[in-house]
Each structure stands twice: as structure tokens, then as C-alpha cells.
Amino acid sequence: MKAKNTTEKTTLHPRNLHRFHYDFEQLIAAYPSLKEFVFINEHATETIDFSNPEAVKALNKALLLSNYDIQNWDIPADYLCPPIPGRADYIHYLADLLADSNDGVIPEGETVVGLDIGIGANCIYPIIGNSVYGWSFVGTDIDEKALQNCKTIIGNNPKLMDAISLQSQIESRFIFKNIILPEDKFTFTICNPPFHNSAEEAEKSALRKVNTLTNTKNSKAILNFGGQNAELWCTGGEIGFITQMIYESAKYPMQCFWFTTLVSKKENLKNIYKILSKVGAVTIKTIDMAQGQKISRIVAWTFLSEMQQKNWKFE
Predict the structure, then answer these.
(1) How far apart are CA 269 and CA 263, in angstroms?
(2) Which residues of 168-193 are buried (b: 16+ CB within 10 A; e: fewer)?
(3) Confidence label for 233 from pLDDT (cuts 50, 70 and 90)
(4) pTM of the entire structure?
């Protein structure tokens, strides 16, 4: 006898649609192919094998269809398959951050424009941000194949066509250069930076993740579980990437209200605050997030004075 798990995931944002455990009946109704991956575990509740990339991808397809009306979402093999609840949390906390500067009201609609640094092949932040709040996005990446896949996703969903535009970063060592043009104005930037310092480090981490999920001791990670090199690692790892981002952001102080990034490693915060102070950030905010056992945070900064923040036009 299967039991419905109605436990609330209280660590997720209050507006997150994924605060309760997955309703597999509803998800299978939306995407029947999910059914083959669902089983009843030892606690008599329905679940999937989260170490199986195909199962996770099927779950994502069902969630995007059921909750965000996104048709025919897919990613190529070997690309990062994002955990949707955690990605949604980032969007909702960003909405709260914008509301703080807008008399407590979340600004909605196409005039709120986000810049997604490293959109990947999955297009997930723009999909959720547009579906929930009607925001517009520019998505950038150094990976042409990833951008082509985002283009396919957008083409499959006409409502996204005017809301999301894509731009290739032709110089991989830069983040905002070539992307933010003199006439551009962004409400925020959003980024899930590469976490690791090398391909070897990324592979060891993927292996640990799979072994934890399966409670086994594999010696080789599942290839399409982890993601592409550019998604997972860069020289200098997370702190190297964010340092570059901060220094570049200082060159566009009036063209973006809030620069933001995920920071996975708590030990990087001290250095990040030091660099932000060095480049003259006016306001720095840290927003804690948690998804299950995983603790993360968003660091946001702006170069706008208090008066400029107050006068920013969201419409």
C-alpha cells in the first residue's frame, strides 16, 4: 500500500511550488513516461532513483509541464540536469530582494530584465522567472551547443520567444564584457558558478554524489550525471569565477541594480566580502538558502546609492 508523503519541505521558500513532496500521480498524468521510473520505497512512499540521470530528467520534464506549462523540455546527454526546487528558490529570493526596493511589492512583467550568466543547456532560471513573475531574460554561455538547446526549448514554447534572448560569450575569460552593452540596463544578474577547480575534482565530487545516493562504492561516476566542463569547473574554481565577476561588475555600476551569484562554499564568503568592499559596492546582502541537507546562499551587491536604489524604475 503506497502512502502519500505530505511532509512540507520547510527549508524551501514559502512561495516555492515544490515545498511538498512530489505528487507522482499528478506528475505521471502530465508526463506518462515518468511512470517507468517511479517505485515504492521501504517507507511505502513513491519516489524515483535520484542517482539515475534518466529518472531525474523525466521528473524535470514532468515538473516543468505540470507546474510551469513548459512543453518538450529536454537536454543533451552529459549536460547538467538541474534540481528544479533549488533553482526555483533562487528566483523567489530574488523576487523578495527586488520587492525590498519596491515598497514591498514584487515587480512583475517584461520590464524586469535578468541576465543569466551561464544559462547552460537547461534554460531553467529564465523558464521559472518568466513563468512565475513574467520577467524577461538574456541568457549567456560560452558553450554553443548549450545555447542551441536553449533555442530549441524556447522554440517549443512560443510564450518564451519574446521573453528570453540568448547571447554567446565569445571570450571565455570574461563574464560581462561583450555582453553588457552601453545601452543595456538589467534589473539583476543571476548565476550558478562553476564549483570546482579542475575536471578531476569535478569527477570525484560526482562520484561521491552517486555513491551517497546509491549507498554503494562505484569507482567511476555516471557520465551524464554531472554536466559539461564549463558547467562544473574553471581555473580558480568558484572563488576564482566570482572574483572575476565582481571586478567586472564594477565596470557597469549604473547598468544593473543587483548583481547576484550563488555561493556554495561558505569559506569563500570572507574573501568575497573583502573584494566587494575593495571595488566599492554600496550595499551587500547575503541570503541563506537550503534544499534538504544542502546549504547554499546568494550574495547580492549593488553600486547604486540609497537614493538611486529608491529611484530605480521597475516599469
Answers:
(1) 8
(2) ebeeeeebbeebbeeeeebbbbbbbb
(3) very low
(4) 0.88
